[in-house]
């Protein structure tokens, strides 16, 4: 029992972190809360499914195309829509929210809601870890999550684009005066966030069926983890998803699986009441938010 | 070199004259001031009388329109305090569920449950949003977006209040005239009440919080108290819509927290023009009948609202009402730029 809580709690936490990372990355760099995140997540799932089942492409190629397309769409979202309302927080929020809801409801209207919509696992089969059976897909998810965190660390600390991302995040005006293009960086951040949504979708969706409500759940998860950990900090995201992941698995084991979604509500309200900037919120965030 | 022009806008003479007490000097000026206010009121009050002409179906649409307009007004009031709410369904659902619960469990009549549901629902939402009021801008929007979804999940999970089946067989409203006139009158009271409220000193402080909350704080004003009061006032409007619709449908269930009730008022407000209260009402009276015509398309309607939202936010940030208002008060001419 204890070991299975430990193992599945870890898997659940990595899933949450994978989902939340793209959202918080975009927000941390460009200050755009990408409410279309759930839409991008589901779009990636359906796109992969269509590439596999209509065109019969190999899985690896379909994945690559999906990630690329999601990134491109994210970029276009910024360049076509958000660029015109940049800096007006209200309009940004409404535009992305409308975009996300529009995408999700469009898929619902298309009738993408039946049980045939599942993505294949990377590899079938399972292993035993400390006596707990665990399928390969969940192992892959942990691997992908780790790889993504390490990639992000090196990307933001050791590449030119990554450094310019951090520059814009820290102080936009100074960064502009040093020749970093603000709009270009923000568009790239949206592209990167959407591509990460696609990666998360391809890794996580094989665990269940693809349904429209997953899109809204993803947004909820991203927001809940971000609020608990502090939206812009990567350690905050990791700790936030660990807390939520384990809390969920424990409630799922001892109460009932339906209670798992209630954990989000309780956690959000608690954290907001005690420490509104999130557990790892920095001073700058505190000033902006409180 | 070609001659370039720019557009110059000037106030009409009658507007300048009407801004003072001299408005009382001629019928023309009095009508200039009165007509835009009185005509919509007369139109709204006479719409229910057309029951025999347009049929009961469109009278039903009128009730739904009023409910959505109330939600849009409550959105606009919160937006004037700088609280951007993406979850108006929270108010609607809270009012609806409380009313339904009181009627279903204790069998109280609508005369009692609707006021209680309205006030109780607004109070519940205010208490729920109390910790969140410390947040600003995007963060508040994020949290309000998630709250109705999570509350729906909560009810579904814990199976309280009828779970995902909901509560049906509630008492009907007494009489068709009651059904038609109560939402219309409530809408008018809210519309003109909110317009008055925001122009009072109290409303100026609320707008000050939107524009610069630090400055208001430095004036030794407790902004959290004011924000909570504004949320309560907005909540009363939203929860009333929910409470009324519960008895109107004689049913309350998960759809009370549906995304429609969040995104449709928002679309109305943005289409009509944010910050004037008349704009959101106008938007509701354009959008809701339109979406009834499009009912055959099912969930594609949300896609339709989304498209309107994006186009309005990006292309017409001003809104219809402000455009009409400008045309009414000002004339335009081209002036050579040289």
Topology:
The complex is a heterodimer of chains A (290) and B (338).
Chain A: H1 2-30, H2 37-53, H3 59-81, H4 89-110, E1 126-129, E2 132-135, H5 136-158, H6 160-170, H7 172-177, H8 182-204, H9 212-229, H10 234-254, H11 260-274, H12 283-289
Antiparallel strand pairs in A: 1-2
Chain B: E1 4-11, H1 13-18, H2 27-46, H3 51-54, H4 56-80, H5 89-106, H6 110-129, H7 137-158, E2 167-168, H8 176-199, H9 201-211, H10 213-218, H11 223-249, E3 251-252, H12 260-272, H13 278-293, H14 300-315, H15 320-329, E4 330-337
Antiparallel strand pairs in B: 1-4, 2-3
Task: Please summarize what this structure is.
Chain A has 290 residues and is mainly α.
Folded structure, characterized:
The complex is a heterodimer of chains A (290) and B (338). Chain A has helices at residues 2-30, 37-53, 59-81, 89-110, 136-158, 160-170, 172-177, 182-204, 212-229, 234-254, 260-274, 283-289, and strands at 126-129, 132-135. Chain A has one domain (2-209). In chain A, helix 1 packs parallel to helix 5 (136-158). Chain A has a two-stranded antiparallel ribbon. The longest helix of chain A is centred in the first third of the chain and has 29 residues, at 2-30. Chain A is globular. Chain A is mainly α and 290 residues long. Chain B has 338 residues and is mainly α. Chain B has helices spanning 13-18, 27-46, 51-54, 56-80, 89-106, 110-129, 137-158, 176-199, 201-211, 213-218, 223-249, 260-272, 278-293, 300-315, 320-329, and strands at 4-11, 167-168, 251-252, 330-337. In chain B, strands 1-4 form a two-stranded antiparallel sheet. Chain B has a two-stranded antiparallel sheet with strand order 2-3. The mean pLDDT of chain B is 87. Classes of the chains: A mainly alpha (290), B mainly alpha (338). Chains A and B meet through helix 4, helix 9 and helix 11 of A and helix 7, helix 12 and helix 14 of B.
